[in-house]
Design goal:
There is one protein chain. By secondary structure, the protein is of the alpha+beta class. The radius of gyration is 15 Å and the shape is globular. Helix 1 crosses helix 2.
Amino acid sequence: MSSYKQIIYHLVFGTKRREFTIPETHCLDLYKYIRGITSNKNCTLYQINGIGDHIHILTDLHPSHGLADFIKDIKIASGNWMKENPDFPKWDGWALGYGAFTCSNKEKPNLVEYIKNQKEHHKKESFYDEYKRLLIEHEIEFKEEYLFK
């Protein structure tokens, strides 16, 4: 019998202290680098985007990978890459933690558009408010004082 899977995640993680350390002029380089990481792990990256203080990733997750290790690998590899890259002079690291929200194939087109429009979206909603909203929408319990520690 063959194995089948559909494990799609909307991942969100921010920069240390939510500082704007990802320059808009070089964010596409970062996204290409992360696309390479996901590809090397046999995952399909459907969309990636963000602004200077956080990123959103819509990807499937190959069953051979655990979610926490997958995110850890992305954060470590991309963080080291930015630290060594002069195009990211203010880079100080990723924040601890992340948001990981499962979604269905039916939701994927809307999420792709949502992530594509991050720069426009954040003219109206802060990262803090967006992250809190996502947690509430996905019925994830949280303590507000720990959201950005």
